[in-house]
Amino acid sequence: MADVSGIVTKKNINLGDYIKKGESLYEIADISTVWVLFDVYESDIPWVKKGDKVEFTVRSLPNETFNGEVSFIDPVINSKTRVASARVIIKNPGKRLKPDMFVRGIVKSELEQQEKVIIVPKSAVMWTGERSVVYVKNASSDKVSFLMKMVTLGPSLGDGYLIKEGLEVGDEIATNGTFSIDAAAQLAGKPSMMSPEGGVPVSGHNHGGASHSETMTMEEMSIGQKEKDALSPLFEAYFKLKNNLVNDDFKAGISSAKEMTTILNKVDMKIFKGEAHDFWMKRSDVLSKELKKAISTKEIGELRKPFEEISNQLIMILKSFGAMDKAIYIEHCPMVNNNNGADWLSLESEIKNPYYGEAMLKCGEVKQVIK
Keywords in UniProt for this one (predicted)? Predict the structure, then answer.
């Protein structure tokens, strides 16, 4: 007889089996009190401490919220998933929480006392892996214009970043539409994320030169259905490439990169007019170079590097030209580039990480939906 009561979670014998002395017949679990285990991303570990309050939900129990506190944090990070495990122990009246249920939690953590703490939304920050920038409203201009500022990011904090350097209390920043602002800055030959020193205004096919202007005015660009139809195959090929990386399929990834190149070369630049034409020429030039890098790679880790910039360019196109014929999700992994993070596009809200594939398939979050 078992010396504990509970629920049989595993049966190790069948009718007619011979039983040896000391052999385990069943595994029994008492689930009146349960352990809830959370994966804590490496970048979030500084914020999670023993005793922190946790609020979590269970996918199979919608519209209900559970509460507990962190009782233990694994001191060792999993070398494959790059996460640590945090344990919450809670009472389970009615035994509604079952083993292996999927939960999602939010930790409520206190910031250390500092004289000045500046936190900005993640949507306000743009980065290339080497630099992070935000656009600050230019108070001296009569028009709505913005000045690019380099910033030093601190730890990720939910939907925001703590800013260590680069901003002052009271600065007004752009929190949405930053890709459009940056694209307009590039077209105007002014400092931007990709060209921090600026350049001459883009006209036709001229992309060189230098400029001393530091501010720019945000302008909207729009295209018609004809232009969107021309770009649609390019996005479809991109989604194939993204899925190949999710599946760790290098050979198929190279094939998709070649397909993107073929489609890109077939897009008729003449269908884009005015500023949209100049913008497209800039984006297509960068895409062509990055796709060439992708095709020349020898293994999947190398292929993922140009994929980041390919994604950035398509995100700029999507945000500047507007929604296509279906909802597209901008998703973000905080672990890429030494925890600076990177974005990608997806047709589904479920996270499937192309930067890590099977190793960290679910690492990431939805930043924005464009539809």
Answer: Transport
